[in-house]
């Protein structure tokens, strides 16, 4: 880290915020690659609608990665956007579904969004004490991520409000329950 951070923060605070944002950057990089994987591997009825629904989300998440990286740099740290950084920061398993149906992928992606949103909310909570500017950035991201998860869940929900992947805690389990 350089010898400066943004005015009003100590170097120690700047480092902690940058570390939190680095994990978020790695999450976003992993998520946009996962979504693109789904885009390439989804098949079956409703293929084109889901194929086209995912690409705008890929672009939004890539933008979130850029915003997180630029905030890290503004704090005086060096953002790490490499595959190695994703693996180093990863506390989750790699996406486990290959070529599969629309319903199977959406059920698995719903679980991915659960993890991403839960982690983002924890970071937002921690940033409440440290940096409201970085917190605001992530609040905006979380709102859009939650909206996209709603789009995904609309495909998985039946008329009584039950999700096809309800109670599943693995991507493969969620995918199998939705096929």
From TrEMBL:
The record's listing under CDD domains reads: DPS
All copies of the Ferritin/DPS domain together span 19-158
Q: Which Pfam families does its entry note?
A: Ferritin
UniProt cross-references to InterPro entries, sorted A to Z: DPS_DNA-bd, DPS_DNA-bd_CS, Ferritin-like, Ferritin-like_SF, Ferritin_DPS_dom
GO molecular-function annotation terms? ferric iron binding; oxidoreductase activity, acting on metal ions
Which protein family is named in the record? Belongs to the Dps family.
Record-given protein name: DNA protection during starvation protein
Question: Which species is this UniProt entry from?
Answer: Mycolicibacterium arabiense
Read off the lineage from the record.
Answer: Bacteria, Bacillati, Actinomycetota, Actinomycetes, Mycobacteriales
Question: What's the gene?
Answer: dps_1
């Amino acid at each position: 880290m350089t010898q400066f951070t943004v005015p009003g923060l100590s170097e120690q605070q700047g480092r902690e915020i940058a570390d939190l944002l680095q994990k978020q950057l790695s999450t976003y990089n992993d998520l946009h690659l996962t979504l693109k994987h789904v885009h390439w591997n989804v098949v079956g009825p409703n293929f084109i609608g889901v194929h086209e629904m995912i690409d705008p989300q890929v672009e939004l998440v890539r933008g979130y990665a850029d915003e997180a990286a630029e905030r890290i740099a503004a704090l005086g740290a060096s953002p790490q956007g490499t595959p190695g950084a994703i693996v180093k920061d990863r506390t989750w398993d790699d996406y486990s579904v290959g070529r599969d149906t629309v319903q199977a992928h959406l059920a698995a992606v719903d679980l991915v969004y659960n993890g991403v949103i839960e982690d983002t909310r924890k970071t937002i909570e921690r940033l409440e004490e440290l940096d409201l500017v970085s917190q605001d950035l992530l609040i905006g991201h979380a709102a859009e991520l939650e909206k996209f998860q709603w789009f995904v869940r609309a495909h998985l929900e039946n008329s009584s409000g039950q999700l096809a992947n309800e109670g599943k805690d693995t991507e493969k389990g969620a995918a199998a329950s939705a096929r």
